Amino acid sequence: MANLFDYLTWRGDLKFAQSPLNPVDNIILCQLSYLPLDGIVPGPGEKEGISVSLAASIFAEKLRNDTSDFKSLVMFRDDPALVSALGSSNRFGNCQLLGYVNHIDTDREVQFSAVCVYTGDGSCFMVYRGTDSSFVGWKEDFNMCFKEVIPAQIEAADYLEKMSSMINGPLRLGGHSKGGNLAVYAASNCHKKIKNRITEIYSNDAPGFCKEFIAGEGFSAIRDRIRSFIPQSSVVGMLLEHDCDYTVIKSSQIGLLQHDLYSWEVTHNDMVHADEITLSSRFVDKTLREWIGSLDNEHREQFIGALYSILIASEVESIPDLEKTWFKAAGLMIKSLGNIDEPTRNLIRKALTELLNAARRNIDTLFKPEKE
Length: 372
Fold this sequence. Notes:
CATH topology of the largest domain: Rossmann fold
Helix content: 40-55%
């Protein structure tokens, strides 16, 4: 069961000009976008970039010094090892990073981050970060259930317009989780001249869109350039509407843990394909679709807002913080449940009852394949 690190051992000596970018390179660059590159990679207003090799050295130095709790900003356990491996490889070491942006606005409920990577083959890969560990990032994801457009999507389109004017040659866009959604949205909503420069759009286990967006001309114009990948037990990548083919990937993990790119199995120049998604993934997909469909936009917004307010009552701002102070946070959240008004309590109770009913109606999906 080979993973990203095995791939770097096999192919790390070959530059992109020698061996073209492939789906494994795509998920490596998407994972790179999760790194806290603030103060390391130049922002959108600067023309010069920084090599992955030099960025890796600075990153390692920050980890050693642990300035301003830098270690707490690293989301994935294997990220430091990945940065080190990329920095020392011929394939990625000389790639240039530029245009890094990391923007979190609690009031507007937006979490947006992106970076551009010159891969040395005359093209640039524009990578959008997926949801980080902040609660506002997850809240923005939930907002997709009742909003046609979220702030991060607007910022993603603006970012593409701005950076494309500074970058020459073909463009690739991509991202993991919400990042894949942002890549597709930006490509769909950019100027025609920019669309013509986009060769591929990588969507890795990313949520979809509302039906109105899928039916639009912008999406239709780039649909055939979308390369969508989901693991066998995908949940996130099955949400909302997609209207494009996807490739099912094998993962070394189970259930929701398959969302982790480090678990995706790879070959020398591709990911290991599976025949179809699991029955459990199909069950969750059908259940959530039916549940969301049973609530109008107003009730979806009210339900998500109520749950978010309970979470905020824990007085922590991120998932790592919640893990550190879970006992105190749990007590505060339970206390806040008693403080919410009766209509809101009834709304939560009704929505959760609908979810259980939808699960009950689709339980047979776990035991038999869907008919063609």
